[in-house]
Amino acid sequence: xxxxxxxFSRQLAKQRLGLLGRGRCSQTPNPCKAAPCRTAxxxxxxxxxxxxxxxxFGLIRMTVVVVPFLYVGTLISKNFAALLEEHxxxxxxxxxxxx
Length: 99
Prior knowledge:
The protein is mainly alpha-helical. The chain is built from 3 helices and no strands. The longest helix is centred in the C-terminal third of the chain and has 28 residues, at 59-86. The relative contact order is 0.05.
């Protein structure tokens, strides 16, 4: 019952949005409106289309994304550890120094 409902809702959404399926372009009058797609590798005269532009994600872009999230993660974990210690849920002990 649930799978039939999911299938029906997918089919209905495809009909409303004009989507045909995975990897295909829509048959709407303006196909670039839904999603940019290229259906041919060559033109009608036989010329090959140029290579599409590639957006490279270099070290700088990766650093710009990773560093802020690492910083936010450390802040969250530091504040949570302080909260646990404040409520005596987890209190680190210095028993290892007696050796």
